[in-house]
Design a protein that fits this description.
Length: 229
């Protein structure tokens, strides 16, 4: 396939899906340090309603409503709650765009297309020699606004593309329910949220997510600037 057609695929996918990709990446960035922020602010851990029901259903069926309420109170004393907070809503936005099962499907397939966008973008601006490789990882600040925006799109993209692809692949694995409920699921979750290497990988994951959110925006700027000039 020629570079011209790869560029068209990159463009045709990026224009309609760019805003969704930005929303998914930004909401994901907010969730990287949710546990640390909740702990620092003294916020209780939120137990989803479905998970809470699963844990307490046996008690409800066997005991009285009073016993059920006592169990809930015990959970709250243990620093847990079923009331949603900011991160609960960000998780819903990240996973389903607040659109339930349909939204989860949309997010999954947008993420798949995001992988195609990333890989096609790498191929479009693939360096032809060693000097071009050095330029590809450098952001020029003294060569005009157009060159700066181009570098913010391509050079930053090159710095984070592998990490973004890994995050996207792990997200797709969850979205398509490809993982068994065992150690593999925990491993993929650790990779997806950046906790696999401690605070360092969490910081890097946060940065990568924020950069990933900017790529569609810088892409829009380059595209419409070229069309309108």
């Amino acid at each position: 396939m020629s570079r011209k057609w790869i560029y068209r695929i990159h463009l045709w996918l990026s224009i309609p899906l760019g805003i969704l990709i930005t929303v998914i990446c930004l909401s994901g960035a907010t969730l990287v340090f949710k546990d640390e922020i909740r702990s620092a602010l003294g916020m209780p851990k939120v137990i989803p309603h479905a998970q809470q029901h699963q844990k307490l259903s046996a008690d409800v069926s066997a005991d009285s409503i009073a016993a059920y309420q006592k169990k809930v109170a015990k959970m709250k004393k243990a620093g847990m709650t079923d009331k949603p907070d900011f991160f609960t809503y960000m998780a819903r936005l990240h996973k389903s765009l607040f659109a339930g099962k349909v939204g989860k499907c949309i997010v999954t397939y947008v993420t798949i297309f995001f992988i195609v966008i990333l890989l096609s973008g790498v191929w479009i601006v693939w360096p032809k020699n060693r000097q071009k490789w050095r330029q590809r990882f450098t952001i020029a600040t003294g060569k005009g606004r157009r060159k700066l925006w181009f570098d913010l799109h391509t050079s930053l993209g090159y710095w984070v593309v592998l990490w973004l692809v890994v995050l996207a692949l792990t997200g797709v694995a969850f979205g398509l329910h490809l993982l068994p409920r065992d150690e593999m699921m925990r491993l993929f979750h650790a990779i997806h949220v950046g906790s696999w290497g401690g605070i360092v990988t969490k910081i890097l994951t946060f940065i990568v997510c924020v950069v990933g959110a900017t790529l569609p925006l810088t892409g829009y700027y380059i595209y419409f600037k070229k069309r309108l000039s």
